[in-house]
Amino acid sequence: MSRSAERWLIELMADRARTALDAAMVLVVLKERGELHVAAASGRGHVRASVLPIEGSALGALYEAGRPVSVDRPLPGQADWLTELGIEGHAAVVAPLPIDGPDGGMIMAVRSDAAFGDQDATTLAAHGARLTRQLMAERNAELERLRYGAQARERERERWARELHDDTVQGLGVLRMQLANARDSGDTQRLRAAVEEALAGLEREVQGIRHLITELRPAALDDLGLAAALQALARRAQAVYGLQAHTEFHLGPDGEQRRLDPELETTIYRVVQEALTNVSRHAQASSVHIVVAETDGTITAAVTDDGRGFPAGAPVQAAADRAALADPTADGQVESGEAAGGGNAPGGFGMPGMRERAELVGGTLQIASAPGQGTTIRLAVPLAGRPHFAADGSVTA
Predict the structure, then answer these.
(1) Does the pTM exceed 0.85?
(2) First and final C-alpha spacing in the chain
(3) Domain range 221-396, its CATH number among 3.30.565.10, 2.70.70.10, 3.40.50.410, 3.30.365.10
(4) Exposure string for 331-343, b = 16+ CB within 10 A, e = fewer
């Protein structure tokens, strides 16, 4: 879970707790790096100190006690933690947040005109428990996403190593053996023929290495832009995999194919590249359609194939939504269908990597499929807050 998303969740729960308790203020305090941080403060009033040390502070002693506390018109020294925070109030109730791991926290509510009862303490504890569960669930999901991403990157490295070993290294080894045999034979004609064959073989290996380099970082993406790079990718899919690949772009007015920021262009290229790889390996498709479009402040990229689709029961979106996914220029937003598996092979490693790329640019990845009706993979990225590039790649206002 991103820091901004976690902060939003904590603030939301603080607002809800304040409303439920009719409190003047509700605070959520979390332990971070050996200190206590006020992660959210909902209500009237101002927190004077948002970070306090655990050692030597009244708030730290309250945290380390780890038990519920309720005070009404506290005497001097009875609730110095309120004074440390700079909060005025004559009634307060505190519940610990039992977050797993070395860090934890507290949720506290303050009133200035009435005391808290036992039911209020129970209500605050329930809100704290709910916040704890949601935080742990989101953090576990974030760890799982990072784990998927690391596994995907490792498998990608394994794939490049395998391609280099199985194709390039073995091909060069065969050429070396042929030249050595011809040299040792003492036959001039045989040596000349072996040299000619080796030259042709070296040309094939050079082309293979160039393809690998292109997959690692296509020069067209930097020099000519996303449209040209994807068109080259489509031509390679047709030449290598036999797919009839069609491309369609709507990235500017009157056919102008304006540039996007480099991070977004790279993300779209990699998602389309991985989708085409999955189609070639698993879909049993004859054609694929790539559409990249800008609509209502969102860039969408969809890859649709005519292959076998996912088996019945696979965790993907219903076939009825495929039309909306396949046409990024269509009106309306698709709310469901976030990908759970990989490419056209449920459970494969392609989808987690693509989903991670989408999340890193603030986008979402969705998939729609039905048995015998093909598959659509769709990336959607809002443009709000991203730099705007003109057709020549210059930044505009």
Answers:
(1) no
(2) 32
(3) 3.30.565.10
(4) eeebeebbbebbb
SS3 47: coil
Both tokens of 65, joined, read 């006690």
Question: Where are the extended beta strands (E) located within 204-319?
Answer: 244-250, 287-295, 298-305
| 309 within 8 A of 374, measured Cβ to Cβ | yes
C-beta contacts of 146-155 below 8 A and 24+ residues apart:
148/349, 148/352, 148/353, 148/355, 148/356, 149/352, 149/353, 149/356, 151/349, 151/352, 152/349, 152/350, 152/352, 152/353, 152/356, 153/353, 155/349
DSSP 166-235: IIIIHHHHHHHHHHHHHHHHT-HHHHHHHHHHHHHHHHHHHHHHHHHHHHHS-HHHHHT-HHHHHHHHHH
For the chain, what is the radius of gyration of the CA atoms?
A: 30
**CA 85 to CA 326: how far, in whole Å?**
54
The CATH fold assigned to 3-144 is Beta-Lactamase (3.30.450)
SS3 state at 99: coil
**How is the chain split into domains, by residue range?**
3-144, 147-211, 221-396
Per CATH, 3-144 and 221-396 having the same topology is answered no
Total residue length of the chain: 397
DSSP assignments along 347-397, one per residue: T-SHHHHHHHHHHHTT-EEEEEE-TTS-EEEEEEEE-TTSPEE-TTS-EE-
Give the dihedral sign, CA 195/201/207/209: negative
Per-residue pLDDT of the chain (397 residues; tens, 9 = 90+): 556 678 888 898 999 999 999 999 999 999 988 899 999 999 877 788 889 999 999 999 999 988 999 998 877 777 888 888 888 767 999 999 977 666 789 999 999 888 899 999 999 999 999 998 888 888 787 777 777 767 766 776 777 777 777 778 888 888 888 888 888 888 888 888 889 888 888 888 887 777 676 666 676 677 778 888 899 888 888 887 888 999 999 886 655 567 888 889 889 998 998 899 888 888 888 999 999 999 888 999 999 999 888 765 554 443 334 444 444 444 433 333 443 333 344 444 367 778 888 888 889 999 888 888 889 999 999 988 787 665 555 555 4
